[in-house]
Amino acid sequence: MRKFVLLCLLIPVIGTSQTKNVVSVQRMFAKVDKVLELEKAIGAHAQKYHTNDAKWRVWEITSGPDAGGYQVVEGPFNWTGLDARGNLGAEHTTDWNKSVAVNTTEGYQSGYYEYQESLSTVALTEFSNKIQIVHWYPKLGYAMSVRALIAKMKKVWEADNTTVAVYMTSASGTTQYTMVTRYKNGFKDRDIVNPLNFKERYEKVHGADSFDEYIDILRNKMDKSWGELLEMRAELGSK
């Protein structure tokens, strides 16, 4: 009986100690004549309303189709924490609408991503100031095949000490894996591990002709893929 009572007492603790592996990702784009106003508003909003699990990290997107936009990452948290977070209050929402949203275009994006520890070579919270993101969209029914390929890629990343955090969308549109290469020393790390020689690196780990399977999955089981570079704008994030 004593054990049963103790277990009941522990249930709330268990419920609130779940792994925090979810992040909220927003992308926003300034109106042509409102870049400075938006940057000022993002920084002020983040520093006033976003702390602890709701903390904001802000990157500027410097290449790719979303170049010129801003990526805001909030978290990590778990889904229980998201329930507890709520909408941060009426004052927060009013400030968002009147100071931030008013300076953005209709290209705003928002979604939830779950960190995939088993596919990653860097801890979730080991962030860096300069990153590359590769977005992979599996065809319907092939998400697990693409996941298995990423697991093989992890062995390549481990072999050449590449730090990659892998995420998967959760209840946020089309299924997507995002592979975030975190450059500890800046973009000059790209000179050390050149993305163009990936075939050689892959076959060194998995054997001759193993790259043929990699290409087959990309051709037949992937809907689309694209990449980009981003730079941290610490002054726009939470303090």
Produce the secondary structure layout.
Elements: H1 2-16, E1 22-28, H2 35-49, E2 56-61, E3 70-77, H3 79-85, H4 90-100, E4 109-115, E5 130-138, H5 143-159, E6 164-169, E7 177-183, H6 189-192, H7 198-206, H8 211-221, E8 222-232
Antiparallel strand pairs: 1-3, 1-4, 2-3, 2-8, 4-6, 5-7, 5-8, 6-7
Helix pairs in contact: 2-4, 5-7, 5-8
Walk me through this protein's architecture:
The chain has 239 residues and is α+β, with helices and mostly antiparallel strands. The chain has two domains: 22-114 and 232-236, Alpha-Beta Plaits, CATH 3.30.70; 115-231, Alpha-Beta Plaits (2-Layer Sandwich), CATH 3.30.70. Helix content is 37%, strand content 26%. The protein contains eight helices and eight strands, in the order H-E-H-E-E-H-H-E-E-H-E-E-H-H-H-E. Helix 2 (35-49) packs antiparallel against helix 4, helix 5 (143-159) crosses helix 7 and helix 5 (143-159) runs antiparallel to helix 8. The longest helix has 17 residues, at 143-159. Residues 1-17 have low confidence and may be disordered.
The end-to-end distance, rounded to whole angstroms, is 48 Å
Spell out the helices and strands N to C: HEHEEHHEEHEEHHHE
Spans with pLDDT under 50 lasting ≥5 residues? 1-17
- Helix percent reads 25-40%
Going by helix content, strand content and strand pairing, the class is alpha+beta
**CATH class wording of the largest domain:** Alpha Beta
Radius of gyration: 20 Å
- Broad shape: globular
